[in-house]
Structure formats: C-alpha cells, structure tokens
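User: I'm curious whether this sequence folds into something compact or stays loose and floppy. Could you predict its structure so I can see for myself?
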Amino acid sequence: MNASTSSGRELYIGLMSGTSLDGVDALVADFSAAQPQCIATAYLPYPPDLRDALLALNEAGHDELRRAAELSVRLARLYAEATQTALARAALPPGSIRAIGCHGQTVRHRPQDGYSLQLNQPALLAELTGITVVADFRNRDIAAGGQGAPLVPAFHERVLRHESLHRVVANIGGIANLTDLAPGKPARGFDTGPGNMLLDAWATRQLGTRYDAGGNFAAQGQVLPALLEGLLRHPYFALPAPKSCGREEFHLGWLLPHLAGNENAADVQATLLELTARSIANVLAQECGGADELLVCGGGVHNEVLMQRLRALLPDTQVATTDTFGVSADFLEALAFAWLARQCLHGEPANLPEATGARGPRILGAIHPA
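Assistant: Here's the prediction. I'll summarize afterward.
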C-alpha cells in the first residue's frame, strides 16, 4: 500500500523522547479530518545504561563526539523499534505512512549561542523503517532569531483552542511550558521552568527510582520555605517571555548548593514539587490572567500531589488533563511531532513566533527520504 493511496487517510508517525529521559513515545496519527485522530501508540522505556549515558552527555566530558555519535545510532535503532511496535498495533505497513516526525534527544539547548543539539540519526531511521523521516525542527527557528522552543504551542493552538473560553495548556515534562490560548488573541507560549526534572533527579538520588510515583514521596514531607524562596530566585523566573530553558539551568548541581545538608529528604522533594507548581501558577497569573481552564499534559499529570497543588494554587481556574478533551496527555507531544512532520512535507510554517521569538513563521524540519 502506498502512502499517497492509503484509503484517503493522511498517516504520520510522531516520535518523542523528552528531557525526562524516560523513554520513547510513538504515535500513529491520521490528519485527514479536521481534528487529528490517534490510531495507535507505543512506549519503549530507555534501558538504564542508555539513560545514564544520555544524562552524562548533558555535561562536558571526555570524548563527547564519539559518545554522542554512538548514542545517536543506538537511539535510531530504539526509535525504529518504537515505530515498528506502533505500526504492528495499528495493523499498518510502513508504506502507508507518509513520514515520521522524530525530535531526537536533546543534550544541549543553547539558543543564546545559536544552537540546540538533539541526538538523532534520521537517515538511519529512514533506512531501518523504510519511511521518510523529518527531523531537526528547532534550528531553523533559532536561525530566524528564535529560541527553537517551545515547539508544541503551535500544535496546541491547532487542536485545543476554544472560541470563547480562555484556555491555557501546561505541558509538564522534564521542563514545563505553557501555551496561552486567549479568545481573539494570538497564541503565546514559553517554558516556565522545571517540570519533572528536579523531582525525578532527587527521587533517583534518594529512592533509587526513576521518579516519585504519584508524588507519594513528596506527600511525606513539608515544604521548606527558605529553600523554596532561594530556588525561586533563579534568574530564569524573572526573564520576560518568550523564553525557554533546559538542564543547563535546572539540575542537581544547581540544587545542591542551596541545601544545608541536614534537610529531611522528603521535605526537599515536597519543596521541589512546590517549585514546579508555583512557577507554573505564578506565570499563569502574571502572563495569562483570567484563564478559565488549565489543561495539563505530559508526565506531570500522573503526579497526583502536583495536580492537587495546581488546583489549590489556581482556585478560579478549572484544572484538568487534555484527556478530558480527547487529546492524550501522555502522547500529545508525539502527536505534535507527527503534525510537525506533516507541516514540513506540506511546506507550511509550524513555529509560533509569539512563543519562540523568531522573526516570523518558518517551515521547520529537514527531510530524509525513505
């Protein structure tokens, strides 16, 4: 079956591996209708050694070029496996898919220096799957004076805007970002700061787990006001939008000097959760005043304590997950990268200058034919 004659459907696959470094999300989507339809999904966790190697590459170290190249090849093979799993679940052959949108794994995000680096081997992925691959979505926006991030607000506007309700979308992955969808106004978006990143790092250090399931560890502690106040002094929080951030700004090496060393570990976890919740709520109040709804997606939706804190901090705003509105909270980013691939193949812009700061709309992505 040929992708151009797939029963009138317009099928794409989106692949996403975010700053949480947990694994690969894969999604098969149909864009033939007004609203994209999810056909099948798959998730492949990173093996612990791969996660550790990727995390180590976020900092300067020995023989980085070789390590990065080898990890890119390994990632391409994992992306191919995720793609094939999603195709099997959808009962579709590779030839039915027009393209894969593959973000790659971010290891450096330095838009102020003119680049954002994602580990990827899209040519190898195209060879392994037999499907055209679209990759490198950030750097054209950066070349146009933007941050290259966040990329998903343009898609949020496409699928979640309401003509009369003021919606804000919070994507809580490793980093959290907001998309402001005020009726009658252009969409805006920006990173608010750490999402799950510090929470996961502290849970790994203290519990030996990859994350704090449900926020249960944080629930055992109490917020430390002095620590919270010190963390909120990070210069990033005072920057005007548009803005974006990553592990360069928020990591254990930044957190540890703020600690006296005798804190209860659960209290630190509770404080880090409050940092995520407050940084989101503060920006929503300052930049998106009067929001009717906050729609949350990303891994943060599974942290019940974090969701409770957002509801408590935003009593006049309905807080729900995007699942409530028919868009998977777990796979929204993968769906967004399927859409980004579609935009590229159609020759249509996909950035949101109000979110990234670019000089104008740009077609994003580089095409690697099958």
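Summary: DSSP finds 13 helices and 13 strands in the chain. The mean pLDDT is 94.
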